[in-house]
């Protein structure tokens, strides 16, 4: 649909995805591709990374929400993403509380005061 | 000139700190709202049954009710605004109710006659293959579009609470995304200015030493 806004995508555990879908972010496009991935015990890292990259490549996605423990699995892919759209937001999960020191954005901001900047 | 640059750098640093503080505050709120949502989902699952409220119950057709309006500002920051389609569905709901009411009052006929007429109308619609009925059936009704209905018709209050918590989380996440983008942009600008300042001091230092 032309002219409409962008979508929010989610990569997370079942309850996180259920919650956000309840909030009304879910979409299945014409090719039946969802804008969310429910990560279960048997979901491989390759699958997560592939989905994350496919979300980055989609022009109709504005924000990607990802559980921090899943973000840890594909940290290199998240760190490599430098564009402002889509924005990547790390959120806590039930078993793993949010740790600001692991967040890609905050680590970048912290780098502001590292020794490298003064060289 | 140098004093100006230093002052600007100081101002930016203060702005950067303010934004970081705002981000931390919003993050804290987001995290507690998500936790509240999970807790409500868990409570709903407890009252509905262990296998309820799972990914197996997601609808086969999904239409987003929230969109994000993105815009790029001059300083390179991206702004995210959350827009909800909910008002439209409410309008649709009220329209359908009004339609039913109007038909009944205008016709003023007994139910028996009414049903016969309706039957004739339905037949007409069936014979017309490109009629309005097909177009209307293609559009999902507001009831079907509400994700709450995927999990049952009479869902517990907890699930509704979870839904409202996650709705707030979605709005908040758009605000956080804007803040993150602003932080990254200001950081880039400051880094550039700091390098410039350093180069200038390196240039002036040998001159001072020579003197």
UniProtKB/TrEMBL annotation, chain A:
State the protein's purpose: Subunit of the V1 complex of vacuolar(H+)-ATPase (V-ATPase), a multisubunit enzyme composed of a peripheral complex (V1) that hydrolyzes ATP and a membrane integral complex (V0) that translocates protons. V-ATPase is responsible for acidifying and maintaining the pH of intracellular compartments and in some cell types, is targeted to the plasma membrane, where it is responsible for acidifying the extracellular environment.
Identification of the protein by name: V-type proton ATPase subunit F
Provide GO CC annotations from the record: proton-transporting V-type ATPase, V1 domain
Family membership? Belongs to the V-ATPase F subunit family.
Q: Tell me the PANTHER family matching this sequence.
A: V-TYPE PROTON ATPASE SUBUNIT F, VACUOLAR ATP SYNTHASE SUBUNIT F
Q: Which keywords does the record carry?
A: Hydrogen ion transport, Ion transport, Transport
Q: What are the protein's GO molecular function terms?
A: proton-transporting ATPase activity, rotational mechanism
Q: Name one Pfam family in it.
A: ATP-synt_F
Q: Which NCBIfam families match?
A: V_ATP_synt_F
Q: How does it assemble?
A: V-ATPase is a heteromultimeric enzyme made up of two complexes: the ATP-hydrolytic V1 complex and the proton translocation V0 complex.
Automatic annotation (TrEMBL), chain B:
Q: GO CC annotation: what is one?
A: endosome
Question: What ranges does the record give for the region Disordered, renumbered to this chain?
Answer: 116-147, 191-211
A GO BP term here is: vacuolar proton-transporting V-type ATPase complex assembly
Question: Which Pfam families does UniProt cross-reference here?
Answer: Vma22_CCDC115
Q: Name one GO molecular function term.
A: unfolded protein binding
> Is Coiled coil one of the keywords UniProt gives this record?
yes
UniProt feature, compositional bias: Basic and acidic residues:
129-147
Keyword list, A-Z: Coiled coil, Cytoplasmic vesicle, Endoplasmic reticulum, Endosome, Lysosome
Compartment(s): Cytoplasmic vesicle, COPI-coated vesicle; Endoplasmic reticulum-Golgi intermediate compartment; Endosome; Lysosome
PANTHER family to which the protein is assigned, alphabetical: COILED-COIL DOMAIN-CONTAINING PROTEIN 115 (PTHR31996)
Oligomeric state and interaction partners are given as: Accessory component of the multisubunit proton-transporting vacuolar (V)-ATPase protein pump.
Give the protein name, as stated in the record: Vacuolar ATPase assembly protein VMA22
Species for this entry: Carassius auratus
């Amino acid at each position: 649909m032309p002219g409409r806004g962008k979508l929010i995508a989610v990569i997370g555990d079942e309850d996180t995805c259920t919650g956000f879908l309840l909030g009304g972010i879910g979409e299945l496009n014409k090719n039946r591709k969802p804008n969310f991935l429910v990560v279960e015990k048997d979901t491989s890292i390759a699958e997560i990374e592939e989905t994350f990259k496919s979300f980055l490549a989609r022009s109709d996605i504005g924000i990607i929400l990802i559980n921090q423990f899943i973000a840890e699995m594909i940290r290199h892919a998240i760190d490599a993403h430098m564009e402002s759209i889509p924005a990547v937001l790390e959120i806590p999960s039930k078993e793993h509380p949010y740790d600001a020191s692991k967040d890609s954005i905050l680590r970048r901001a912290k780098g502001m005061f590292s020794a490298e900047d003064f060289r | 000139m140098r004093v100006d640059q230093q002052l600007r750098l100081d101002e930016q640093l203060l702005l950067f700190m303010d934004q970081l503080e705002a981000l931390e505050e919003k993050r804290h709120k987001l995290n507690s709202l998500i936790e509240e949502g999970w807790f409500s989902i868990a409570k709903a699952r407890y009252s509905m049954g262990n296998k309820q409220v799972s990914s197996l119950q997601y609808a086969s057709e999904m239409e987003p009710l929230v969109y994000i309006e993105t815009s790029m500002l001059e300083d390179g920051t991206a702004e995210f605004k959350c827009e909800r389609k909910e008002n439209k569905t409410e309008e649709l709901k009220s329209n359908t109710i009004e339609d039913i009411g109007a038909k009944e009052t205008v016709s003023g006929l007994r139910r028996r006659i009414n049903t016969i007429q309706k039957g004739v109308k339905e037949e007409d619609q069936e014979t017309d293959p490109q009629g309005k009925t097909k177009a209307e059936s293609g559009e999902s009704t507001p009831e079907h579009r509400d994700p709450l209905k995927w999990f049952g018709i009479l869902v517990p209050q907890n699930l509704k609470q979870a839904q409202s918590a996650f709705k707030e989380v979605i709005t908040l996440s758009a605000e956080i995304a804007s803040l993150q983008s602003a932080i990254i942009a200001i950081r880039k600008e400051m880094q550039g200015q700091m390098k410039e300042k350093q180069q200038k001091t390196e240039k002036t230092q040998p001159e001072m030493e020579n003197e």
